[in-house]
Each structure stands twice: as structure tokens, then as C-alpha cells.
Design goal:
Helix content of chain A: 25-40%
CATH class of the largest domain in chain B: Alpha Beta
Largest interface: A-B, 31 and 38 residues
Distance between the termini of chain B: 14 Å
Structural class of chain B: alpha/beta
Number of domains of chain A: 1
Oligomer: heterodimer
Number of strands of chain A: 10
Strand content of chain B: 15-25%
CATH class of chain A: Alpha Beta
Largest sheet of chain B: 8 strands, mixed
CATH superfamily of the largest domain in chain B: Glycogen Phosphorylase B
CATH topology of the largest domain in chain B: Rossmann fold
Chain lengths: 183, 381
């Protein structure tokens, strides 16, 4: 059994103000980390930062800020920086799903929090995003969806549902993520 | 003077014109026609057909079949016929929204029953459909959506949302609380619980390398695989498939192959007999794989207090909150089997005040009030 679970999120901790950021995704990330701790795991949370830092926020939970650009391009840099950590065999939970698209993480589960793109996005951004979403679904061993909208957006947009529809989970338990069960 | 209103639909009567097709959309048409008749309107339902016909459904509700090709091109023919043969100033309700192609009929409302296009559609069809949907939103005065999936799909796909978002109204489907009463827990036969699959045994449009049963849009194949999982876990159940469809024989064949003939039955009952079936069920399952709105079967089952397991597809997530009034599964046999086990563990769900609230808020009176007030607003009735 692995001792560690790696959580990857866009941002969670403000090293200047020395406090956790507020927001739904941030709370989800914090609570997932606490749950993993309760299951006896050491949790590392990785996110983007202007300056690199390392901070233990609770017993068993350490946040690592990696210096990468804060914009969209930083997603790729963060994925590459994570790969450079040599954690390939460890389980990853991508709380920010979009980062998974830029790296190779064979034991990764992703979380979709919402459809964040809307019709007013420029068409080329939507086209690129559609391609990215398809990659994300296929790269993750499973995707936890906090609502049914993302799942139901994928069904009319992507072919071959028999290949990927079983990878969507509304009901996945964290212990299943850790032990590679269910999915 | 009697006011007149037109309803346009793909189908209502079957091709012998002797009985109505059974299905959610057909029931919706029948009930909206009766509602408008009761409000004092003279109602004509136009449907695409293989020949012209005219028939009275009941006093004040006339059904006219218009001969036109059954395919998409037939929608244009049908629309032209309406332009040339009806008073285009009358209000129109397009229960099949894709028929709203006329430029001259402006006092019109559409009804969206669920996203029916899947990712497996050919690219050009998806592209054409996208253009069509955008035009329909622009043209129609308003659209009644039976689930939130279409609304959310539009928000993700179409620009200038401020100009059209007010035209989409979410009005979930309904069931008649007088017909679908609260059921007490049924007696088990041979100590085996009964699981009801109250859907049509449909296939799918694009099965690919899979069989029609495996990809059955209503999830018959997924349910059978879940039964296999339960068998492996030494949990034996009875299963009743209640609904007509092309994979009925495949289900019987599957049962024979898996030595479950004595525990799996395939039947067909009329709408007014459905409450009897719910009264025999310990659990009902609606594990759709595609093209799902707010399933009438799921609503009926919930209103009867039968623990209901649904998939996360379409509007099913709109009407079930996991653990409160039913159970939600993902599209894997293990997940469905797990949800069935959770459902079997409770005797009845929802219960008490929750049940009463759901019966009130998913009941037909609520639907009638919401639909008529939106039609009045959009069609200036």
C-alpha cells in the first residue's frame, strides 16, 4: 500500500497572507486531504505559486508551492514540474482536472467541478478545450464529477461512449481512489 | 368564440391509427392537449404520418396526420404544409421542437424532451443539429425544457447568452398522484426481492461493435450485467422487464443462457396497470445510457415510494437526490449493482414528509400550472 497521496490543484494556500484561500474547489481539496489523512495516508498538495514554498498545514498534510506561471501556460509547467519530482508510481488526485492533460501520470484520478467554459468563449478556445477535455477523460483512470452536467455534456460531444462512460463517477469513494478499486 | 391552438408532433397515433404510441413524449402531447381543452381551447394535434388522416381523440381535441417522409427532410415538408393549411396567426406548441422550421408561424413555443443527439452521430449531423438548435432558440418565443441538461448544453455551446437565456424554462415531467399512490412493501416470492425495469426494451442507433442489448439506450443490458454481479455476490433477485421493444427477445435469450429464466420475466402492460407492477416491486431501476429527460417511469416509481435507482444520464440527476428519494449509479455494472443493494436495504424510499413533498412537487397539478402559465406568457393566450 502507498503511504502517500498527491493532490494537485491550481491554488490553495497564500504564502504571503499565510492562510488557505476560500472557495469551493479549495474546500474540496482541503477536505479530500483530511479524509486521506484519516485513512492513514501522508498527503502532499501541489499547486502553482509565484515563489516556491513548502508548508505543513496539519498533521500529515504538506503543501508544496511550485514556481510556475500563474496563467493557463502554467498548467503545463506545473505538470512538467510534477513529473520532475519522480513520483510517477504514486497515486495522484487531480483536484484541478485540467493539469492532468499536460503530463503522464499512470495512477491519476481527476475531479471535474463544473463546466467552466461558456458559449461566449472565442470559438478557437472552445475547440481547443473540447480536445483537451477528451484527452483528460482518456488519461484519467476515473473522473469524479460533482454534478451530472459535465457527464451529459460529454455524451453529445464525444463519440465512442462505451470506451469512456464507465470512467465517470459521481459515487466514487476516496478509498477507492487510493486503492485503485471500483474503476 | 372558441379559441384555437395547434400542437405539432412527430407522432401520437400509431400507424394503424387505432391507439396512441406509448412513451413520454406521447403522454406529454396527450396531457397538454387535454389541459388546453379544459382551459377552453379547441385543440388540433398535427403529426407526421405515412398517410393523411383525421380523427377525434376526444371532444375538443382533433388529431390530423400529415403525409410526409419519415426522415429529417420530412420535417420541412410538414412545416410547409402547416404554413399553407393552417392559420399561421394561431398559437403553436411544437412538442417535437425540431418541427418548428416555419418562418411564418411566429406565435410558437417549443418543447425539449432531452438531448437526443449523441457523440456517435456523424460529424455533419452534429454540425447541422447545432445550427438547427441555435435557430430554434432564436425563432421560438420560448422553450419548455423537461430537464436542465439541454439548458446547460446551450450555455456551454452558444454565444450571446444574454439574448436567449430567458427563453429557456425548466419544467420537469410529472406523474398523476391519484394514479400512482404510495405502495406498501410487497410480499417477497420465494424470499427473493423483485426488481422492476419499467422501461421500453429499446436498442440504440449506433451499437458499434456491441450488441443492441449491451448498448440498449434504456440500460437493459447494463441492468442484466448488474444482475450478474449480484449473482456472483450470492444475491438472487427476480427481475421484471415491463415494456415493449426490439431487445425483448434478446433479454429472454440472455436469461436462458444465464439459467435465470425462472427469475427474469418480460412483460408489457398499459399505463393504468403500471401501479400494479410498482406494488410488486421492492426496487425500480432506470439505468439509461443515453437520450434521457426527466423519466416519467422514475417519477412514477418515486411517487409510489418504491426505492428507485437511476443512472447519472440526462435529467435523472434532476429528480433524484442520492439517498433522499432514490439512488444514483454510474454507468458500470458494479455501480448499478451496488446501488441496487443500497436500495434493497431500505424498505421504502422516500417516506414521510419527503415523500409528500416529492408527490406534490413532481405531481401533475404542479406541471399543469407551470406549463399553462408559461404558454400564456409566451403565446399571449
Amino acid at each position: 500500500m502507498n503511504d502517500h497521496l498527491n493532490l494537485v490543484v491550481l491554488w490553495l494556500y497564500d504564502p504571503v497572507a499565510q492562510k488557505l484561500l476560500t472557495g469551493g474547489m479549495e474546500r474540496w481539496c482541503r477536505d479530500a486531504a483530511r479524509l486521506a489523512c484519516k485513512h492513514g495516508l501522508q498527503v502532499r498538495i501541489w499547486h502553482k505559486s509565484i515563489e516556491p514554498f513548502e508548508k505543513q498545514i496539519e498533521d500529515g498534510i504538506i503543501i508544496h508551492g511550485l514556481r510556475v506561471p500563474m496563467g493557463f501556460r502554467g498548467n503545463r509547467s506545473l505538470a512538467k514540474a510534477l513529473q520532475a519530482q519522480g513520483l510517477r508510481e504514486e497515486p495522484f488526485l487531480f483536484v484541478s482536472q485540467e493539469i492532468l492533460g499536460f503530463g503522464d501520470f499512470p495512477r491519476a484520478v481527476a475531479v471535474n467541478h463544473v463546466i467552466w467554459w461558456d458559449g461566449d468563449f472565442p470559438w478557437w478556445k472552445r475547440a481547443l478545450n473540447k480536445r483537451l477535455q477528451r484527452i483528460l477523460i482518456l488519461k484519467a483512470k476515473a473522473t469524479i464529477c460533482v454534478d451530472t452536467n459535465y457527464i451529459n455534456w460529454c455524451h453529445p460531444e464525444f463519440p465512442n461512449p462505451e470506451v469512456w462512460e464507465g470512467l465517470f463517477h459521481q459515487m466514487l469513494q476516496l478509498k477507492d481512489v487510493i486503492h485503485d478499486q471500483t474503476y | 368564440m372558441t379559441k384555437h391552438i395547434n400542437i405539432a408532433s412527430l407522432r401520437l397515433y400509431d400507424y394503424e391509427h387505432s391507439s396512441l404510441f406509448t412513451g413520454g413524449m406521447e403522454r406529454w402531447i396527450r396531457d397538454i392537449a387535454f389541459l388546453l381543452r379544459d382551459k377552453g381551447y379547441d385543440v388540433t394535434v398535427y403529426q407526421k404520418d405515412i398517410c393523411n388522416f383525421e380523427k377525434n381523440l376526444t371532444d375538443g381535441v382533433k388529431v390530423k396526420g400529415i403525409k410526409c417522409p419519415a426522415n429529417w427532410l420530412g420535417n420541412r415538408t410538414f412545416s410547409k404544409w402547416l404554413e399553407n393549411n393552417t392559420n399561421t396567426r394561431d398559437p403553436f406548441v411544437y412538442v417535437s421542437m425540431e418541427l418548428a422550421l416555419s418562418q411564418r408561424i411566429r406565435r410558437a413555443v417549443g418543447v425539449q424532451h432531452g438531448v437526443f443527439w449523441e457523440g456517435d452521430f456523424p460529424y455533419y449531423k452534429k454540425w447541422l443539429n447545432r445550427i438547427l438548435q441555435k435557430q430554434l432558440i432564436k425563432k421560438l418565443n420560448g422553450i419548455i425544457c423537461v430537464d436542465t441538461i439541454y439548458i446547460n448544453w446551450c450555455h456551454a455551446e452558444y454565444s450571446n447568452r444574454a439574448s436567449w437565456e430567458h427563453k429557456l424554462a425548466y419544467i420537469p415531467n410529472y406523474a398523476d398522484p391519484e394514479l400512482f399512490c404510495v405502495m406498501s412493501e410487497p410480499a417477497t416470492i420465494d424470499n427473493l426481492p423483485t426488481i422492476l425495469f419499467p422501461r421500453r426494451a429499446t436498442g440504440t442507433r449506433y451499437p458499434g461493435k456491441y450488441s443492441m442489448l449491451e448498448r440498449s439506450s434504456r440500460g437493459a443490458g447494463l441492468f442484466l450485467k448488474a444482475l450478474e454481479v449480484l449473482e456472483r455476490e450470492n444475491l438472487q433477485v427476480r427481475a421484471i422487464f415491463a415494456g415493449r421493444g426490439p431487445v425483448q427477445n434478446d433479454i429472454v435469450e440472455w436469461a436462458r443462457k444465464h439459467v435465470m429464466v425462472d427469475r427474469i420475466s418480460v412483460t408489457e402492460v398499459s399505463l393504468d396497470k403500471m401501479p400494479n407492477l410498482y406494488s410488486q416491486a421492492n426496487v425500480a431501476v432506470v439505468p439509461s445510457l443515453e437520450r434521457e429527460g426527466t423519466s416519467l417511469s422514475a417519477i412514477e416509481s418515486i411517487m409510489c415510494g418504491v426505492p428507485t435507482v437511476v443512472s447519472h444520464i440526462g435529467g435523472l440527476g434532476n429528480i433524484v437526490i442520492d439517498g433522499l428519494n432514490g439512488f444514483i449509479c454510474d454507468l458500470t455494472p458494479e455501480s448499478l449493482a451496488n446501488a441496487i443493494k443500497r436500495a434493497l436495504a431500505v424498505r421504502r424510499l422516500p417516506t414521510g414528509q419527503t415523500l409528500e413533498l416529492f408527490r406534490k412537487n413532481l405531481g401533475k397539478p404542479r406541471w399543469e400550472h407551470q406549463v399553462f402559465s408559461h404558454l400564456s406568457k409566451w403565446l399571449h393566450l
